[in-house]
Amino acid sequence: MNIGVFDHLDRRNVALDEHYASRLRLLEKYDAAGFHAYHLAEHHATPLGMAPVPGIFLAAATQRTQRIRLGPCVYCLPLYDPLRLIEEICMLDQISRGRFDLGVGRGIVPYEMAYFDLHPFETEEIYREALEVILAGLTNDVLEHRGPRYTYRKVPMVLRPFQKPHPPLWYGLGHDRGAEWAATNGVHVLSNHPAEGAVELFARYRDVWHRKHGAAPMPSLGMTRHVVVAATDAEAEAIARPNYAIWYANLTKLWRDFGSTPIRFARDFDEARQRGLAVAGTAARVREELERQVAVSTCSYLVVRPIFGDVTESQAGESIDRFASEVLPHLNALKPAS
After folding, report:
1. Where are the domains of the chain?
2. Is the pTM here over 0.85, yes or no?
3. Non-local CB neighbours of 62 within 8 Å, separated by 6+ positions
4. Considering the chain, what percentage of its residues have pLDDT values greater than 90?
5. 2-73+169-333: what CATH class?
6. Are strands 102-105 and 142-146 parallel, antiparallel or unpaired?
7. Of 88, 111, 177, 327, which has fewest CB within 10 angstroms of its CB?
8. Using one digit for the tens of pLDDT, what is the confidence trace for 61-82?
9. What torsion do the CA atoms of 34, 74, 138, 20 make, to the nearest 10 degrees?
10. CB neighbours of 71 closer than 8 A, spacing ≥ 6?
11. What pLDDT does residue 263 have?
């Protein structure tokens, strides 16, 4: 089983230039350790995401890594001109020599969309049309499109992607309808659900996949978890607990600013641990819990979040080293559910 990394690149209590430099150093560590992919979130006007233009950070990452796959998770498509994004995708796929993964979505925080003068009720339609344009541009020599929002007339597609017909597509999975769409279109997925909920979404995906595609190789069914590994359970929890609180405050800031109910995430580390969304402890404890969740969820891909909140580079580095030497080989040896 492949193991990846997810990163909000949320704000830390360090200068922003050092924040970026630190994350790039950690990317070198992920690459050397053998993690499969690095998935970077896109957020705007919030401390949850200090990489609102993920392509820039990922371009830097291509020059600091050799093997790990890299991609936004996800590009918020309503915020982009599709033609310009096609060109960015091609450049990233080429300079990474085919290590680019294309995550797409409409953006889950309505207040972020509103800052760009977009109404949340219109973003789904915009997203669908934008994706149609992007896929057409990546797979044709000339882009022709006439739609309700975008029109392109005989645009020559001078840049081409390295991967054919285009980089693998990724999507954040939250409900049955998303599972059906992703399975129908051959899209890899990532879920934040507890294992007991993820198994139902993955079952729906598999059902649609087998009906639509038969015995063809199935895309990745991924699940993400906050993970901290330390010498003792107490040390790991002492790192995870306060930093989960910082991360959660970053996650919910815009919702709270507008007097709204935050999106449904575990409110603190103890709730997250109880629901299986956060795992902290010795390598043995973390390995046992993640293996249990893989079995329960039937995921075929596991993604960890080793750094969040104000976890320091040193703390994250030690956690990653312990995970890479004592947990990763065991997880890599697991046979993904079919």
Report:
1. 2-73+169-333
2. yes
3. 70, 92, 95, 96, 99
4. 97
5. alpha beta
6. unpaired
7. 177
8. 999 999 999 999 999 999 999 9
9. -60
10. 37, 38, 39, 40, 58, 100, 101, 102, 103, 167, 170
11. 76
